[in-house]
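Batch job 17 of 40 flagged for manual review because the log was empty.
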Amino acid sequence: MKNKNFDKEYSFDISFPSENFYEDCFGCSLEKILSFRKFTTYKLTNDVNMDNILLKKIQLKVRNLIKNNDSANGIHVKFNRKTKYEDVIKILDICVIEKVPTYILKDYDVWIMTGSNAELVKNCPFQYAKK
């Protein structure tokens, strides 16, 4: 009997930036880039039922952020050392499903946002990476 659990397979590329990536490419630190938005923070609890409820809420908030092209706000998801790998993948899946243009995974955090905003462009003008 064939197991149909994996009839469809998906993948996406993840890369982690170099130490000075944001400074080299945008002329600003990651912290400064993030400072131009107001982020709502959600902390996963490691409680399966609570986290499933929270993940659904996060997906709805992300969907609304993208639908309204809200460049002034963003979603910040905070993990911890005990966060299950599958929950990290669920957050990345939400980003793919909701067609999030920009999300940053660093350490135990994911920042989810639409494209740039006027303050970001004014204060961190895009620069090509040094060659």
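Reviewer: the log was empty due to a logging misconfiguration, but the result itself is present. The chain has a mean pLDDT of 85. Unflagging and moving on to job 18.
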